[in-house]
Amino acid sequence: MSCRRAASRIPGAIDDPRMTTPDATFEQRALHLFRELLDIGDAEARERALAGIEPALRARALALLARVADADLHEAPLDLRIGPYQVLERIGQGGMGEVFRARRVDGAYEKDVAIKRIWAGHAPLAARFVRERQLLARLQHPHIAQLLDGGIDAAGKPWLAMELVRGADIAAWCDAHDATLARRMELLTQACDAVDHAHRQLIVHRDIKPSNILVDDAGRAKLLDFGIARLLDDDEGQHTQTQAMTPAWATPEQQQGRPVTTASDVYQLGLLMRVLACGLPRADDDARMSVAFARLCRDAPERARAIAQRRGVSVDALQRQLRGDLDSIVALATARDAGERYPSALALADDVRRWLRGDAVQARGDERGYRLRRATRRWWPALAAGLAGIALVGFHFHSLSNALGHTERARARAHLAEQHARAALVRAEQERNTANAVSDYFIKMFSMLGPEAINGSRPATVKQLLQVGAEGLEDVDASRERAPEALSAMWRSMAAVHRNLGEHQRALELADKALASARAASNSVAIAEALRARSGALHWLGRTDEAFDATLQAVAQLGDDRAEYGSLPAKLHDDLSWGYRERGDYTKAMHHARLGIDGLRRDPQAVRRLAFVQALNNAGDTAIAAGDFTQARIWLEEGARLYPQLANPNPSTQVFLQSNLATLDLHAGRMDAARTRLQTLLVQARAQFGDTHPRTDLVLTNLAMVQLAAGDAQAAVDAARRLLASGIATYGVGHPYVADARGVLLIALLQANEHRETAIVRAQLQERCTEPARDAHTQLVKIACARADRDAAALAEGAAALSGFRDVMPWQRRIVERWRAQLAVA
What CATH architecture applies to the domain 168-357? Predict the structure, then answer.
């Protein structure tokens, strides 16, 4: 949690008799001012904050502050027990309370938590706290520090036990890591998603600021203190000018004592975006962000240069980035009139994501000339000859938009909301019709098998069932008795079944039928879904370029504004991540992996769905390839935790998750753990899929790697031989996965000193030995080819190249050094 040093207690905050007098409002105001002063470490800054404050209020706040200064700030109350938790250390204090690291000691579980003891403002707080904490406990989101427990201690102070987040506040983290503007905006969207989740639970934060958002060791944003400001506010139904808030981050409605709504959180998210983007807080004159930064460039150029450097760009480049879209997004989010802001935190996040993709943003509305300028940037080489004319038109329309201002934005928001509502209704109707059609079809399919298959006297095989299903679908297609969208969904379902059976060529044929039906319907969503099915089949067939092209076509089907398409855009980010990973572009691969997972998390039911667990696995696999093993373990372990809770578990997903976790065990040097995990998984895979199936082959591949790492060369040879035989039986001799199996076998044979078979396998790998490596393993295969050829120069060159791969493992380096030593002696 965000921390500063704290006193052992705040004398007077609870026990002062004035707290129970009718003048509780005055005490609340003093406490709010006191909390703000606690957040200001510099004495001069405190004096500036107190300027203009009424004398009585100023004196009361300073008195509370003086008592803190006199208290013991250095010794943590190690003998203190709060509820079932033993305090371990005081880790700080904030404007709303003191914070401890503590551990549960009642035997329920052992886990470090952060306990925040709240500075109480008046006597009714305790009773209200008991009512409110159940509401706050409903907030379960990956970007919210979860409330675990709560109560009232012996002194009458409310306390909260929360998830312990180790990290730095979002602004400090970004500066310390020289985060680019894009990375800062990605973190902002995570915060927006968390706020949107809370709003759906009817909870408003009220105090969003950098110190209430930490970025953990995995680079994820976590919101703290959700709902605490609500607890500290006046009694329900009463709105005064004393609502709990941080003055520097207060919204116009908070400053005026008006009710706080979800629009207040949107405003504070806009202020946060401003700070992350340009490093400057809200301007006193309400100047737009770009204007304020231009002013800084003029008045304090060194500071402006430092801000730009922390974002990895020049001052001029940052000024260009702050103008236009980002400026408009911040301005819309921080409009003084709450009704003029984004309608939700999710709408703000979606617009920031449009900016990240380079798409037109909604904050610009129907601003004349804007979309034309966007198109000009995208197609600049073709339009260069018309630059002067386009610039004049753009300038003219920009001037008009300034005159129309609020009317244009309001009209744009209303039009957008209407479009989304209509699209949602149409999509819901289509999905209902499709679901009914698929259900009716499968009932019909089973009835086509006859009573012998149903009663068990002559049971049908899976092959027969699929054959009957395909024939039935052909009849449905020919009769046109179903809408093309429904027919496309049926073909996709059949393709998915064949893909899970490892019959990828048949899956591709069925995916193409789904695509034809979707195109007949001119339905962009159905086309995109069918292209995803086609891409998946092509990937497993080793046709990776065609698979990536299908993914790009699917993305293009959804256009610029994809908010209405449910989870499909997030799934496409997952597909894009895999495609970029195959091309060795790990930066883009990780970017799309994060976007895919974050997009799925926006659905509160996402954690119960197979697609989310699959996305976690795919992202973890990408993180391994990118060398980010910490992030990989976070994603994969989350997937492994969620998998048993799925209503529709898929054994293939379990194989992928456990295989990737075994790879992480191997990276960490835990060979016994990796071997045990894979041996158990191999038994399960054979029982589930059989001896010759791609999922079983995957486990065998990883098991061979573990045996190589452990120095058990003969066991690795045996596993690799089984892997090769299975691959040939499944795919045929010329398939890329068969070449992968031969590569594993070549490495194992070299380690086992089986020279005769080594020469045979090496001859079969000529193409693989000369093509560019895509990861550390394929580079190791190329080095193995050099070792088999006894080519010391090529081996040395390959060894140098191996160090450049992010996923290289220590055991791979050891093998290469052994081979080099062997050639040096020979």
Answer: Orthogonal Bundle (1.10)
